[in-house]
Amino acid sequence: MACINVTNVSVLDNPSMFTSPFSFEISFECLAPLKEDLEWKIIYVGSAESEKYDQVLDSILLGPVPMGSLKFVFQADPPDLTKIPESDVLGVTVVLLTCSYKGKEFIRVGFYVNNAYETQEVGPDGEIVPIPLPVDITKVHRSILSDKPRVTRFPIEWDSPTETMFDANSNDASNSNAFLPPSEQQMSEDPSSSNPVQPMEIS
Question: What span, in angstroms and rounded, lies between the C-alpha atoms of 145 and 152?
């Protein structure tokens, strides 16, 4: 049995500028008493090429957690541009919201993020002028695909050996870059996937 059931994640202030904070309103149920705190993280995937470009934007401990329905807003600063490869600043990436108990991650919610210039210059012949490098980050807008989250749950041991959350074959989902690139991975559930996508209500 899962002691924590995340019921809703709302993306706030979306769309926004790249330099704006990330903000999520998280609703969840605590179904059994917990002896320790929950650890929540917001992780920005800087590049599909390597996890070394992942940035933990913020990490918080939440507790003691009473039983019942709870809601809170989790906000984090935008990623450090100097830690993202120049070629990956624009385009589609992923932001991850994770929660762990006793150091064990039991849920991961991933959202696709599109970073793009609001407008691009057009040349005299009507062709779009390539964006010069380095990117002027003050002109980049961020849009989060809030209605298509990818939710993966992991089995963990809670405070009792019998209180284990069940989910079939979710080992590969521990790789944050499993979400990327979107051109090679469908946003909807793939029946043959070992990491099923579970729909979550988004407001």
Answer: 17
- The H or E element that residue 92 is part of is strand 91-101
Pick from 81, 198, 181, 61: nearest CA to 139? 81
Q: From CA 135, how far away is CA 121, in angstroms rounded?
A: 14
Count of C-beta atoms within a 10 Å radius of residue 193: 14
Q: Determine if residue 103 is left, alpha or beta; phi over 0 gives left, psi from -120 to 50 gives alpha, anything else beta.
A: left
Give 98-116 pLDDT, tens digit per residue.
999 999 999 999 999 999 9
Output the six-digit token pair for 7. Answer: 């019921």
Yes or no: say if 74 and 42 are a contact pair by the CB < 8 Å rule: yes
Residue recorded with tokens 């989902």: 173
124-180 tens-digit pLDDT = 665 666 676 788 899 999 999 999 899 999 999 998 655 444 443 344 444 555 555
Rounded to the nearest angstrom, the gap between the alpha carbon of residue 167 and the centroid of all alpha carbons in its chain is: 19
